[in-house]
């Protein structure tokens, strides 16, 4: 993939593409070829054959147009990937009107986790700047609401949302590389390869902490690390819950209850 010229002024060009074709209330037939239609075709190809199969030539063939016709709408593959990632993200989950901000945030995390499992190719789309497409901003909006309800304000909520998003994506990225040894339910066993290395190659005297951790994990009842009702694996749920513990503690400490 070509690297975008650092002198290119344009996250704005990307924004134009990401927001073009959004419903504006106008009537009449939609144009036969559009940024959204091109991006939808890209998503279908990536879903079926992976990101490696995605090219402007392949999309043009699928849609029945020349490659140059596509470039008239989307001038580079880098920009195409950004638009396709936004289309692929889809609308955010409906978190309901629950007053339980922790559960709302877990529901959001679960939706993102499951979406990345369905479309793992999205983890490999490089973004040159912060995601600002309609769907991606809608996902951010949906997460900000319970974070604000938890008591965070302004930049606190924004930074917390970005951190949590990075945690989910990072865990999903690691999980992808471990899927060669899934369990009976199709969930990866991230400890399989490292456990073998610890058992066979690592000197306990040189790596006492690593040895102790994996020895304890092998002795932990498997039911303790099974996915919960929301489908979150232990590796993600533990971190999310501790993150929420920290948010609760921070807000409570910052705004201690007053005696009346």
From TrEMBL:
Domain of life, per lineage: Bacteria
SUPFAM superfamilies documented for this protein: Homeodomain-like (SSF46689), Tetracyclin repressor-like, C-terminal domain (SSF48498)
DNA-binding region (UniProt annotation): 55-74
DNA-binding found in the keyword field: yes
Keyword set includes Transcription regulation: yes
Gene3D superfamilies linked: Homeodomain-like, Tetracycline Repressor, domain 2
Region (Disordered): 1-32
Occurrences of domain HTH tetR-type (ranges): 32-92
Biased composition (Basic and acidic residues): 1-13
Entry-linked PROSITE patterns: HTH_TETR_2
Keywords: DNA-binding, Transcription, Transcription regulation
InterPro entries: Homeodomain-like_sf, HTH-type_TetR-like_transc_reg, HTH_TetR, Tet_transcr_reg_TetR-rel_C_sf
Compositionally biased region (Low complexity): 21-32
Protein name: TetR/AcrR family transcriptional regulator
Lineage, uppermost ranks: Bacteria, Bacillati, Actinomycetota, Actinomycetes, Propionibacteriales
